[in-house]
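re the bet — no i am not wrong, look at it urself. input seq straight from the record:
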Amino acid sequence: MNESLEKDPLLLDHEYDGIGELDNNLPRWWVWMFNFSILFAILYMIHYHVLGRGQLMAAEYAAEMEAGEKIKQAALARFETEMATLAPSTDPALLAEGGTLFANLCAPCHREDGGGLVGPNLTDDYWIHGGEFKDTLRTIYNGVPEKGMITWKNLLKPREMHAVASYIYTLRGATLATPGKPPENQAPADTGPSIYE
């Protein structure tokens, strides 16, 4: 062993491959942090696991989900009562949002231009579930499960449903590049001008 290493009081009495091991003290701040972490772990275990005064992550998640569900149900109930009085929006930002939602969620059944595929044509006045704006909202909200249209109230926010319905409203009377699906219902009883013009 090297003579200078033997005289160093901080070196332990063994070495490996010419490397000696120091026996110096850890920094005081590190020792205090280490001791504090042990104390914290003990207090945490007592508070959460022994006394049961705090919510564990699973219980906290369940409580947050329950609170969120209450907020969602309140918003849906409010929207359901407002549906009969809502008018189509003319806000360009909302219509753009509705167009994006329509392209992603509705176009697979109603075609990108609203001409209809599996779902009915949305560009004419022959509407199966009612031709007023409130009927469109209600159809989106409740869906038509017996015909394959899902209930969107479980997946979309009220604002999103209003955005899609407003966008669909702009498709009424659109000129299609390729013919749309044939009418699936009778025209409205009123033979006067369309209310959507």
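see?? Confidence is low (pLDDT under 50) at residues 191-197. told u. also Helices lie at 3-7, 28-50, 57-82, 92-110, 133-142, 158-171. so pay up
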